[in-house]
Amino acid sequence: NGTIVAANQNPAGTFNATVNGLLPNTIYSYVVRSTDAAGNTVRTPLASFTTLPDLTPPANPSNFTATSGNG
After folding, report:
1. Are 46 and 29 in contact (CB under 8 A)?
2. What is residue 55's predicted lDDT score, i.e. its pLDDT?
3. How far, CA to CA in Å, does 30 sit from each of 13, 34, 45, 52, 59?
4. Distance (Å) of CA 59 to CA 7, 23, 25, 62
5. Left if phi > 0, otherwise alpha if psi is -120 to 50, otherwise beta: which for 3?
6. Where are the beta strands (DSSP E) in 1-71?
7. How many CA atoms lie within 13 A of 25 on its CB side?
């Protein structure tokens, strides 16, 4: 949704960013923009990635009561 992640100055060619709150099994797109001290700016082409699916099973049910029925 147009979120901007700022990074500190890094050696040329390196970049790290942590993005939180991503949904599982979802495609995200991004570009990286870099500006040098002289104000020259360059952008990467649009790229994308897919987050991994959520494979964690739900917790076991607990705190329930069984009652007899007529079935």
Report:
1. yes
2. 93
3. 17, 13, 9, 17, 34
4. 38, 20, 20, 9
5. beta
6. 27-30, 33-35, 41-43, 47-50
7. 4
Blockwise average pLDDT, block size 10, the chain, 71 residues: 63 74 93 84 92 92 82 63
> What is the DSSP-derived secondary structure letter of residue 61?
P
Tokens of 2: 């147009």
Query: How far does Cα 44 stand from its chain's mean position?
Result: 19
- Report how far Cα 15 is from the mean position of its chain's Cα atoms: 16
pLDDT score at 5: 65
Tokens 């009652």, residue located: 67
Task: Provide the pLDDT for residue 12.
Answer: 65
Q: Give every CB contact of residue 22 below 8 A, 6+ residues apart in sequence.
A: 28, 51
pLDDT computed for residue 4 by the predictor: 66
